Amino acid sequence: MTFVVKPRTHHPRLPLNDLGLTRRDYEGSVSTLCAGCGHDSVSAAIVQACAELSLPPHRFAKVSGIGCSSKTPSYFLNKSHGFNSVHGRMPSVMTGANLANRDLHFIGVSGDGDSASIGMGQFAHIMRRRINMLYIVDNNGTYGLTKGQFSATNDKGSTSKKGAPNLYEPIDLVTMAMQIGASFVARSFSGDKQQLVPLIKAGLKHKGMAFIDVVSPCVAFNNHQGSTKSYEHIRQHTKNVVDADYIPVHQEITADYRPGTREDVNMPDGTTLKLYKLDENYDVHDRVGALNYIQRRQESGEVVTGLLYVDPEAADCHEIMDTVQRPLNELNEPELCPGQDKLDLINDSFR
Amino acid sequence: MSVSYNDFVIRFANVNGSGSASANGMFAKALFRMGIPVATRNIFPSNIQGLPTWFEVRVSEKGYLGRREGVDIMVAMNAETFVEDVASVSPGGYLVYDSSKPLAKHLQRDDVIEIGIPIATMLLPEYSDPKQRSLFKNITYLGALAGLLNIDFDVITGMVATQYKGKDQLIAPNIRALELGRQFAFDYLQAPLPLQVRASDQVGDRIMVDGNMAAGLGSIYGGASVCAWYPITPSTSVAEAFETHANRLRIDPETGQKNFAIIQAEDELAAIGIVIGAAWNGARSFTATSGPGISLMSEFLGLAYFAEIPAVLWDIQRAGPSTGMPTRTQQSDIVASAFASHGDSKHVLLFPSTPKECFDFAAQALDLADRLQTPIIVLSDLELGMNDNLSEPFEWDDSRRYDRGKVLNAQELDEVEVFGRYLDVDGDGIGYRTYPGTHPEKGAFFTRGTSRDEFAAYTESPEVYEKNMIRLLKKWHTAAELVPAAEIATSAQRVGVIYFGTTALPMPEAMDQLRDEGIELDACRIRAFPFGAEVAEFIENHEIVFVVEQNRDAQMRMLLINELECNPKQMIAINYYAGLSISANFIVSSITDYYQANKLARLTEVQS
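^ Those are the sequences you sent over. The predicted structure of the assembly is below.
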């Protein structure tokens, strides 16, 4: 792997966002993943979402674990700090980073190996703690870097490249996340930018734990016939239930002609999340009903996608702990050190 | 009969969870408040309720705080361990027991003075509730001991009043139980005994506190704003002390919100991960664990070493390996901590000896971590961490400023021409770092556990990799100059002794006794790894150096030989590792045995 910086020049007619920046200002270095890798589409969607939201490109912290997916924070938001940590441990590093400065935007990228196997414990506990972040799993059902072993999200019966079936039950991170505390849960497909970009925007603006499971096919090891995580299989078996769109506060909501019943969810910061219900039986606020729905569809081989659950009012970890509004990393001696006077009293209490 | 004052060991044998800890603690505190030096040791099982537990108080006018072998007074309140408790009394010592049932013949010893107090019988008409009777049993023997040992009764009753402040209805019955015991001692036991206490001035302004409390408080004073931890004996009380005091000392006066965050993590891996994430993002952070936690945290420690991220980790050592003896003390994580993680990684270690030093090192470790951009592991142990010990009072210089190390802000970034995270600009092996979100255009970098160049870009270039590893060694040498220096006391002897941590507790007593035997030693108390030049010099200047430590494999000796390339034959290992704290008796007999076996000259022989 080499480190390639992209040229800074861009087409003069690229659109500018509210900060006067183009999409290019949100890019990273050149990807070293395989050509056609779903993960690169996810990175591109992150770039587009951040640019369209006009967020300052240096006010992010990107954290990942180990694996193909975990390499991707190099490929977006070059002006932000990134941290490629250890296998399965992105959530703990992210938790610490978030505690230190609640004012940044936090994007965690992980994979199915990283989050559903070695990092299963940390995945579960960051959901419980509701760290304010966007947690993306690039889910391809396989260990790419070690050449194609099954991962824990691979469906039972799905075959390896050599034709051997997977014998074990899959772990579904979406239903897990819903059960244990995530207040924004979505599933998407790396090949469906129309669906994915708005979900990323909504997830970034959501206060609290926003989790998106992105089925992201591995062209090298898991894109063959017999695999349930191939481009073809996913295209044929997805069932989109709720489309989302994110509307900034100052933008007037005009009539639109997308399919489905529309619901406007008012976000705490005054912005609006527009939802388009594509299945009348689905209620995005009913956690138990949604779980039931997703699992029933799963039984029949369908992959339910879209915004699956949202609770815009849920408290995030800082609110739960009642920490100060100022980032902890800005506090200094006056706030942190109680001084000798207090210490005299403390000494007396030990006499 | 001659009376001996302020010099004995008393041991209380109780059942875990029976409420004895509070009475026993009051006993020790009362002597402390009379100005008498005391050292307490809790010898407890890894159990919540029902198993035997012992509390030992060493009373020493001379101020010896180390464990002394032998028991002068045994307060035997646990039927289950009664036989061994009777057997453990030193000849001429006293056995205090509940004589409501007569002492069986086979338990009587000719060389022990029996002091029977019919506690259960006495309490029967006083308290109808059996639970109360059981609790007041402890208070009653405390009252009897006050009479027997001539403890200032006002001090004890005063403590009861303070302890039950707000639960005033409990004060009178407690004092009643104290008086019952004391009166019995006067009426029937020829109190006071020839072995007793009297007010002293040997405590001075010292405080009585455990090392874990000191570590938690020191972390507050040192500016830690994030604490992540996972419960494990004997380290748990470090995080609990931090939280308790932070809830009083770190509340924003205007909003009532917290100027700190504390997370009880799902395991030790997550705890150190949170610490590293927070420190990477500019918040001072720490965790506390014990031996098994060091094993679990090792991968992350390697990341923090290689990616150069500050982290502070307290290891309150217990007896290993594996689960070992979770409630017994040892100094056996030295090598595991020094070289935690795969590859060529090594870590800065600090070795506190007293609660005051725990407080000081807690703050200093946070400074060192930021300055050196690397994990700092503070190696305390159960002996220091969980036992109340005499300590100099805590001090803080209000003019002191935190050393945040080399961190560039937006303005400073504007002024530098080229920013490279791992560029050794100052020649001390330490680069400049930035916090995320500092500057719109400059200073962002990618932190990784993989090999990278000076600009934090991934590389597999052999030259660049090697250059980076050499720079990390340069930083290691810088660390040797910044860590606390060893404390050295020399009088130009040929033989020296090296020790550290709680091995320092019995050392003054051991040195005094050795002097009586004609053995005078120079002393070096190591306070940190990497070793400073003064440690190398100490070893060079002595033909023989005893290295006294509480582990089987002479781990500090290993480090000394390895790092300083001294002659192994010159370094004599003295190792105690049975799980109690090392005693002066053990040190003295080990050293005199060596002198004898090797026919080394003693002062008295030289003089004669």
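The longest helix of chain B spans residues 462-482. Chain B has four domains: 4-196, 208-391, 410-479, 487-607.

Shout if you want it in another format.
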